Give the backbone structure.
Amino acid sequence: MKLVPILEAILLTAGRPLSIKELESLLPEFDPLEIRDAIGYLKNEYGNGHRGLELIEVAGGYRFQVPQHLSSWVRRLKRVTPIRLSKAALETLAVIIYKQPVTRAEIEQIRGVDSSATLRFLMEHNLIRVCGRKEVPGRPLLYRTTKRFLEVFGLKDLKSVSQILEEAKPATGQLSLFEQVE
């Protein structure tokens, strides 16, 4: 049996991104190099925009998804609306992305407003998580982004986020969430 259709079936039904290591452990009868080559082949096959699916690398793994230009058609079937983030949620998420791990107090210091409800919303949608406690008096919770965040925003890893944030910095002289206020 050929490897490509097996990978297609596994990636299509997984429901989440699968890493190369996961694929190798699922398919021990195939050489790891053969698996990597087959993934490369599938990326080329499904990356030209002429199909109803695309294979993307996201959150440290690979998954099939509907291309953006076809998503409105699929939403008719699913009857779901995409997550809509308010300005407050986007601001809070931006601070967490850039500063992670970060405490609520640090977020509020940057934003200048209470962020409790926004943090709760982001946690309910599994875009952020508690990753520990800061070693200071009171031991406040530390927040960071999740793999789900990478999946929702179609990002390969946190390096991708850093590159996007660096490109999004405003011109010199403008104050933004990405600059330290002294």
Remarks:
- Residues 170-182 have pLDDT under 50 and may be disordered.
- The radius of gyration is 20 Å.
- Residues 32-46 form the longest helix (15 residues).
- The beta strands are 54-58, 61-65, 102-103, 128-133, 141-145.
